[in-house]
Amino acid sequence: MFACIGAAELSGDGPFAILPPNREIACMASRNRAGPEFFHPTTMSELPPLMRDQRKVDADHVKLLAIFHFVLAGLSLAGLAFLFLHWMIMHSFMGNPALWKDAKGGPPPAEFFAIFKWFYVFFGVVIVTLGLGNLLSGWCLLKRRARMFSLVVAGVNCLGFPFGTALGVFTLIILLRESVIELYSAGKPASTNPISGG
Fold it and tell me: How many domains does one find in the chain?
């Protein structure tokens, strides 16, 4: 490349002159010998320029989020077991007349415990739904699929103070990061389907 510029200057044509055909060929050959730094072939499937360390950090963060989602799903299962144990204790306490024989007013009416049953059913459904949601979201995070679904689960987790709130906030921060969006996009298979999981 420098030989081409020098040749043009020595001929008096200037650095922007059009070289003769034989000199153009020699110039192109010198460029090819200059090394790979002058040529950076790219393909459409490559990610935009980004530091390799940042991609590794993003991948590690997404993997950690998946693990913590599995942990929260396990805690939901433990919460469901605790709710069932609480129901058994309340049922034994309310349905045992011997425990109320010394009480002045007697045992509470049966309707009182019947109302509590609906609370147990409601919280049981909520716990099961959250547990399944976190389980599916953890699997999606490992596969780097359905990012929007994981964002929705993260928003719901924010209501579960303190562990759900912490996990939900960190999930939103990481999944909304521009480099993580590129990481998800790079992992998508080529498809013409307009419906995308995010």
Answer: 2
Question: Does one domain contain both 59 and 34?
Answer: no
Q: Which amino acid is at 78?
A: A
Domain that holds residue 152: 54-186
pLDDT in tens, 123-171: 999 999 999 999 999 999 999 999 999 999 999 999 998 999 999 999 9
Instruction: For residues 32 and 85, state if they share a domain.
Output: no
For residue 97, being part of any structural domain is answered with: yes
Claim to verify: residue 126 and residue 175 sit in the same structural domain? yes
How many C-beta atoms surround the C-beta of residue 143 within 10 A?
Answer: 10
Angle at 107 between CA 106 and CA 111, to 5 degrees: 130
> Phi, psi at residue 58, to the nearest 5°?
-60, -45
Name all contacts of 23-27 with Cβ < 8 Å and 24+ positions apart.
27/1, 27/3
Alpha-carbon gap, residue 177 to 123, rounded angstroms: 33
